[in-house]
Structure formats: structure tokens, C-alpha cells
Specification:
113 residues, two-stranded antiparallel sheet
């Protein structure tokens, strides 16, 4: 079980960028009052629901924590995340999001060889 500090910590990136935290918590199925309760505990499934809601609402695989969303050091982590997915659909989704993010870097040209 995880304490509320884990949940609040993962919300920090969205909070810093001005996103509606209540909307994210609602999509994740988390009670905002529980997130503020010092005695509250959350399970892994609830944490995964939060990750999913954050990625969707921020449109950001890095959950809002990376100032420059497309830092090359995170490319390997993104590819590993794609390889660790449970379905081909999820793997392709991660890879396409990675590819689209790379297209936004000025001067970068991707080539298939």
C-alpha cells in the first residue's frame, strides 16, 4: 500500500503546469478528500489509474515532470516502456507517441533504413 504522499507527488507535475487536479483525480477514480487524508492508503491499481489519467490529460508520457518534454536521455526509457507493455496495441501507442514527440524537435529528421 502507498501513502497519500505518492499520489500527491505524482500530481505535482500536473499542478505545476496548471492542470485541473480535481478533473485528473475524477478520471482516475480517486477521491480528492482521501488524497488529502494523512491516513489514506492507495494500492497499485489506483496508482496505475492515476498514471493513465495523467498521461491522457497531460498528453505526456512523462507525467509533466520533464521541463523539456523531449529530452534525449529519456528516449531509452520510452522505448523500454513500449517493450514492457502487455499488448501490441499499447506498444504501438507508446512508440507512435515517442515518434510524434521527436518530430517536434527542430532540425531533427528521422529516417527509416
Amino acid at each position: 500500500m502507498l501513502t497519500r504522499h505518492f499520489i500527491q507527488g505524482f500530481l505535482e507535475g500536473a499542478r505545476r503546469r496548471g492542470y485541473d487536479i480535481a478533473s485528473i483525480l475524477k478520471e482516475a477514480g480517486l477521491d480528492p478528500i482521501a488524497v488529502e487524508n494523512p491516513n489514506a492508503q492507495f494500492n497499485g491499481q489506483q496508482l496505475q489509474c492515476l498514471f493513465d489519467a495523467l498521461m491522457r490529460q497531460l498528453d505526456d508520457l512523462f507525467l509533466g515532470f520533464v521541463k523539456e518534454r523531449h529530452k534525449p536521455v529519456l528516449n531509452l526509457a520510452t522505448l523500454k516502456m513500449a517493450m514492457d507493455t502487455d499488448t501490441l496495441h499499447n506498444q504501438l501507442l507508446v512508440l507512435f507517441q515517442y515518434h510524434e514527440s521527436m518530430l517536434l524537435i527542430p532540425g531533427l529528421h528521422l529516417m527509416l533504413i
